[in-house]
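step 4 of 6: structure.
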Amino acid sequence: MNEVSHENAKKTPSINDVAKLAGVSVSSVSRYLNNAAHLRDEKKHRIAQAIEMLDYHPSLLARGLAANRSKTIALFTGSKLLYGVTGCIQGIEAAASKAGAVVDVVLLDKHQEPGKMRQTIKSTLSVNPCGVIIDQPRYDTGSEMVLREVKKDVPLVLIGGNRIEGQCQLFTYDDHGGYRITQHLLSLGHKTVFHVAVPEEDESQTRQSGWRRALEEAGAVVPPLYRTSWDPLDAVEVGRKLGQRDDVTAVFAGNDEIALGVIRGLYSVGKRVPQDVSVAGFDNNPIASLSIPSLTTWRQDFEHIGIFATDLILDQIAGNLDTELKTAHYVGDTAEQLIIRESTAAPPAQSR
Amino acid sequence: MNEVSHENAKKTPSINDVAKLAGVSVSSVSRYLNNAAHLRDEKKHRIAQAIEMLDYHPSLLARGLAANRSKTIALFTGSKLLYGVTGCIQGIEAAASKAGAVVDVVLLDKHQEPGKMRQTIKSTLSVNPCGVIIDQPRYDTGSEMVLREVKKDVPLVLIGGNRIEGQCQLFTYDDHGGYRITQHLLSLGHKTVFHVAVPEEDESQTRQSGWRRALEEAGAVVPPLYRTSWDPLDAVEVGRKLGQRDDVTAVFAGNDEIALGVIRGLYSVGKRVPQDVSVAGFDNNPIASLSIPSLTTWRQDFEHIGIFATDLILDQIAGNLDTELKTAHYVGDTAEQLIIRESTAAPPAQSR
DNA sequence: CTGAAAGCGCTTACAG
DNA sequence: CTGAAAGCGCTTACAG
């Protein structure tokens, strides 16, 4: 039809090509793409056709540069992709891709030097993301920097982590979960319940606070809190220590992996689970149903929280919600999340 | 110094601002940034100073648009972030961030309609990534599409998955690992070893092929291959079936999670591990050392492979390597990766 | 409803 | 070694 170059170089078509083929102005094509303003149906149709024929896909790059806002969501999180974070990423990805957005994932290694870290953050933010998510923000350099560098007018959502005042933050019902797990253990006849907390946890509205609340409400002694790292081997050590006390008949571990570590520690000093000591986990990690004994735990839907966070950003951009963005949200339903399996039972006879 | 607007709007500084402040042309600043051509030291210094003062960070967007290549690595993988993939992502992220590159993560859901999927792929590719990685490519629509859409001149690296001829692809020594695991089981006195393969595995150069080779070399019967899905519950079912055969005294599971499932299945029909049946896993997932019994397994360093892949791309861009990019690479060292733990032992007396 | 034109912040021949 | 200028592919006032 038209005089193509001999080369026939298959250059990726641009908005110009579409405009030319459709016989309209670039502006119109742009409007069509963003369905801003109303175009005549006939025009719309011609543009649609041209796009189809050329297999045209707008350049996110040019778009981002011209509009000063690109369709990407920047996701910052710690450098260890733990079970929960992984689930969130899946949710974020799914929701973003459904909306045609791309997600830039940045893992902030807390041991990296601040200068380098700032560089990374700035670079990521230089694409003018339309939204930013921090998964598991901590009171550390990384989270702080991101918080500081993100422009005030771009939607920012935090997922879990430590509570940062004045920010939109999503939480699961950790407190409630801790409460229910502890209550369940108490109802089995245990006099009290020990808790092995996950690292870097706040003291309120967390698994830990729920545990404490349940004990206090039941008039049980609140035993000393045990802490551990993300390294499962440390949990084994904690389990060993707990196994050496005879007042320990029930343990609520901060998550399922820690529970497994604790169980190994208990075994190593001759305690059986659940005959001698009951152990519950948290999260309902797939391994919770596979281990022997299988783990009593609290189900969490991380994927859902990732979707929720992304939708919050997308809605914000679409012009909905605006007051909602400054508060803490709790997501997930609190019913039927307690999953009772083999690792919890009544205490041994002599302890009742 | 200069007449700033009353607004004092803190606009993000651009290359123009730097040029102005340093008293040089934009071109020079650009050259400085990309250290193309040699600038006079004094000039360099002035530019550096201006950058510092303004806290200038180049826009990845503009850069990508102008250079027709952006400093981002597109990572495509399946929608389930399994243990191995997660590790790879960590490695890719670490290596990319060290080089100042951003990584766009895209999870391709195989149940999504092709049109939508293509849209996602095209969009992601529209930022002109400087490199593309497909983690666990499969013979499916997603991988195929990416393979087809990526421009010939952008470095593409595949990690694991099915072998795609003519592509640069990284593999771990799965075959060797399968071989060693099987050999270990045989050396314990088992007459043969059953294998439960991971889904979508090729027949050569995989855990499965190593298993088969070890059996054949030892002159052992090659029992029927069992397959399972990524859902651990299916592995439990397989374990149950295996437990019902009396010729089963050793099982090599495709990965650690499958091993746990198989063990549960065996228990459910009254077989103990390792007393009645030995079970080995693969990967050295953290849970392998936490479960009871702890799992004999083959250690994999997924993070390392992620770093390797990224470096391959980065090197390619830097102008090194070019022949290397068309072959299959094996990464990881084959020594000391066999980890023997509690789940494997000699067969019961009557089976020897 | 629709176009022509300026501009987003860079890179890259092209001259000097 | 260094600048002026065109161009990357879009969006967005500004006119009509």
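step 5 of 6: annotate
 - Residues 170 and 329 of chain B are 5 Å apart (CA to CA).
 - Chain B touches chain A through 53 residues (CB under 8 Å).
step 6 of 6: archive
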